[in-house]
## 1
Amino acid sequence: MTPDELASRLDRAATDLGPAIERAVQHAGELGRALIRANASGRPGPNIITGQYWASWQTQTRAIPHGAQCTIGTDRPQGRRLEFGFFDMTDSLGRHYYQPPFPHVGPAVPAIQSALRAGMLSAVSEVLS
């Protein structure tokens, strides 16, 4: 391979890397949402009562220069309370609350990390092959 061929190949790879990373990040985000929803489908995570909380989990992938970012989240107010619980709380009316945590996001994080790492390796291999 001549230096000009190498330069041309690296230019193509630089152009193709951003979209390849975006696809990998989007895949990892969708996998993460599926895992969180699966974990929020009963014990040890929260039980499904109406399905609204389960359905509220969304992903949003955005392209950034030479890559992408993905946000996985819910707009429901009970998300934080369900994940972390709360202990020994009294509201303004004097009612006492205790709710144990029902983790459903935290247990999904290692699998999301693995999927993202594998996706990045695949993206780099794809553009350099």
## 2
Amino acid sequence: MGATQTREPQSPGRRERKKAATRKAIADAALRLFLERGYDDVGIREIADAADVSTATLFKHFPSKEALVFDLDADRETGLLDAVRRRPAGRPVLAALREYVLAGTAVYQDAEMERFLELIRSTPALSEYAHRMWMRHEGALTQAITEASDAPQGDPTCAALAHFALETAALARASADPRTAVESAFDLLEHGWNATRPGV
């Protein structure tokens, strides 16, 4: 009787690399097809076939069709909270948030990113999903601002600042001039309507 062959178990590092590679292949295939033919005209099975995976594998990595387009959201909340909690001494919270959101608009100058943004703007399901993705961090950002400003829990001004700071991302995505849109929104947050539009 021949010796029984045993499969050598994969190390955790190798498993994670394979999962990451599969996830990237799926996301890349989805974005390519969406840009070529439009979001609504591409099916999940087509994406799975293009990535050479089963639909079951696709859904293990992405819970919905919309999620296929937004593969870089995992670190967003960490970045937002770090902008507030790790800001340099003496830098106001609002200035730190302005800087963080403005840094995100830099990628909009890339031609490929412009195609990506146009896909989002022209697809209501993606626009709504992108907005929900940002706004789901509202509670955590409110808490970080509350702690940073030594405000009492439940302070509505901290909640308002978190809400409107996050909404600036939607303005940037929809604007032909994202940087100006963000600067204008934060000018309003910093100085108020009466200062930016006196007499109006």
## 3
Amino acid sequence: MKKNRFYRKALLAVTGILGTSATALACDACKAQQPKFLQGVTHGAVPTSNWDYVVVSVMVIITLYSLYALVRCLAKPADKAHEPIKNMILNS
């Protein structure tokens, strides 16, 4: 039970650190060129069409699903006959 609490707190800490550092990426010139909801977050060229948002949204969905599947497989592996890789790594 204490392990789960530790992992949750660690995940929240990492998410918080990454979330706060990502807002400081854009320079003043890029902030002025970006759309209102991306100001201060992105750095570089302005999206040229709505397809740019669609492509990025699909990539984000695929990445989040991959992360979810990775965490799920590491937390509860489907193969019960063998020792999970995470235990071999943690025990060595």
## 4
Amino acid sequence: MSRDFRLHRAPVGILDYELAEERATALGRMGRALERALARLREFDAAHPRSDATASAQQARRALVREAGHALWMFVVQREACGLRDSRTIMRDYNVPGEVQQCMGAAPATSTRPAT
């Protein structure tokens, strides 16, 4: 007798299992992306004190904050797709700075001017 449980289940059950598996995989991927974005921001902050930051360093930091905010948004949305609605645990467990939370989901501005 085969040990592959999918051979003994209805097709809709197999599909449900595959969808749940994909949601879980995507959740892990989004969580790792958030961890990387937050790590880059923390490394930048450790290397560049804010008190004497140049304009280019401030701009680079703002980009890192936006990147982390986008990664946070993607993770929260994926968690909600998995039925996990309370995002307070994310903020606490990942130690998400308030400024990242505030720009969560903010898309970077793009130029809408036509090329000349």
